[in-house]
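Note to self: keep these together.
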Amino acid sequence: MSAIAHFIHHLSEITGRIVAWLVVFLVCLTFYDVLMRYLFNAGSVALQELEWHLFSVILLLGASYTLKHREHVRVDLIYASTRLSDRYRDCVDLVGNLCFLLPFCTLIIVSSMPFIETAYLAAEHSPDPGGLNYRWLLKAMIPLGFLLLALQGFADSLDIIQRIRNKRS
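Structure:
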């Protein structure tokens, strides 16, 4: 079990590094776009669309890395209490992963597939003149991002189960 979890953690780290470089690229692209628009009065619809496409990819692919490093947003009403034991917190995380995170990711993955298929078959492109083509590629990031998030949730669940077992011994 730990080899599977280790592989998934490593995959999340690689994805996080890719996302970090995409953020740098997005900042440079946005700087260039603003510079061209306000200094030279030369804007580009394609550049603006690429900016929000990159932002979407960063958000979708970065979620698994964020979960791995426990930097995700969570409702800390129960979890944050200092009186709770680590075992109880582990149980809260495990129940959250198994009852909420993994089913939600599965729902998004399954329900997004027809959405992507339709975009691909229709050769969906930007409705704006000068916009980007191949919009199905962006939409394909939805199930990929949620698959990576589900895998990280699964790996975290394996780690939690291992910790709970070790504390019993």
